[in-house]
Amino acid sequence: MKIFVTGVCGQLGHDVVNNAAARGYEAVGSDIQSEYSGVADGSAVTSAPYVQLDITDKEAVKTVISEIKPDVIIHCAAWTAVDAAEDEENREKVHSINALGTGYIAEAAKSIDCKMLYLSTDYVFDGKGDRPWEPDDKCYAPLNVYGQSKLDGELAVSSILDKFFIVRIAWVFGLNGKNFIKTMINVGKTHDTVRVVNDQIGTPTYTLDLARLLVDMVETDKYGYYHATNEGGYISWYDFCCEFYKQYGLNTKVIPVTTEEYGLSKAARPFNSRLDKSKLVQAGFKPLPDWKDAVKRYLAEAEL
Q1: Would strands 235-236 and 201-202 be described as parallel, antiparallel, or unpaired?
Q2: pLDDT-derived band of residue 142, with 50, 70 and 90 as boundaries?
Q3: How many structural domains are present in the chain?
Q4: Which residues are catalytic?
Q5: Is residue 249 part of a domain?
Q6: CA distances from 205 to 5, 93, 99, 159, 280 (A)
Q7: Does the pTM of the predicted model rise above 0.70?
Q8: Suppose 274 and one of 122, 132, 214, 248 were both cysteines; which one would form an S-S bond, judging by CB atoms 3.0 to 4.6 Å apart?
Q9: The domain spanning residue 134 has which CATH number?
């Protein structure tokens, strides 16, 4: 099986290529940079074939995918800077990458009759209530530009393709790139106290664990919508920070605050990011490990 992975210079794409290659699949990576840039860890992603691709260039997408002829496309490339997406000068670019570019990938996949897996987000939901969101719930009124652009990407994939997986994830952390754990540990090293919101509820997702699941998925034809985060229950960002500070050995005091009290974010965030993952088990897929275990393994690997 040949797997084409977009966004390999990011957290998730890096791990997906490594997982696919470790299983003996032919993995081809792409990103907008002229050459692979990321963690130079000697893993498969640094030696796998790499193709420069701007997913907002419709003709380039069509040409590259028709030439590579993958059996599967795992589409990790995205604009993920949530607050910056709110800036007026960025909004068109965000839509172009997350919605239009995703549609171009889907059209190219359809032209060669290959599977496509699209990574989406808890931010497609409005965050109301406290019931966990189910994969087949309808998405209405995302709270920010990023969420709307990812929902538009979902709609593009589902309207163009029959052979698709749409996998919503949340609170992502991995070795290759920026994330909440890296940011807060760096802050904690230089501050006696930090303030972290305690009224946004969800579950973290370790890209190393997620990559395994995604490759498991594309080995099947169990298409549809799924939710995927690590196991271990629903927590707040405050709970998350307290746990990785404890595991890392930082004594920095973590002060819980409401989103309103925190008040620093341009983009509105959903309060309820609980994702129901039971469909994974029903479909026969192996769930991700407990998030505390994922943090332990991540901290053992990351250079922080």
Answers
A1: antiparallel
A2: very high
A3: 1
A4: 146
A5: no
A6: 19, 26, 23, 27, 15
A7: yes
A8: 132
A9: 3.40.50.720
For the stretch 99-122, pLDDT in tens is 999 999 999 999 999 999 999 999
Does residue 146 belong to any structural domain of this protein? yes
**Alpha-carbon distances of 175 from 67, 202, 221, rounded to whole Å:** 31, 21, 30
For residue 258, is it within any domain?
A: no
Q: 36 and 50 in contact (C-beta within 8 Å)?
A: yes
Asked, for residue 82, whether it belongs to a domain, the answer is yes
End-to-end CA gap in the chain: 36
Please report where in the chains the tokens 């965000």 appear, as a residue: 94
Instruction: Specify the pLDDT at position 140.
Output: 78
Locate tokens 């209530």: which residue? 129
Which residues span the domain enclosing 23?
2-176+205-230+274-288
Cα 81 to Cα 84: distance, rounded to the nearest angstrom: 5
